């Protein structure tokens, strides 16, 4: 497992938390930041998966 996968997964979780808190308190900016962080984490996780695949080949 590549370190990018671990960091990406952590960003996805952090983003989900921000979205939930943003919705709960009515903070649209926090909610948007959370959504952006989730996307960033998913991309980083995918990059880590590609690196892992290349390394194994």
Automatic annotation (TrEMBL):
SUPFAM superfamilies registered for this protein in UniProt: Hypothetical protein YjbJ
Domain CsbD-like: 4-56
One Pfam family per UniProt: CsbD
Domain of life: Bacteria
Family per record: Belongs to the UPF0337 (CsbD) family.
Name of the protein this chain belongs to: CsbD-like
Record organism: Ruegeria marina
């Amino acid at each position: 497992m590549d370190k990018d996968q671990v960091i990406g997964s952590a960003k996805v979780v952090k983003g989900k938390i921000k979205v939930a808190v943003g919705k709960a308190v009515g903070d649209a900016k926090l909610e948007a930041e959370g959504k952006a962080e989730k996307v960033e984490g998913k991309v980083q996780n995918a990059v880590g998966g590609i690196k892992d695949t290349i390394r194994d080949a």
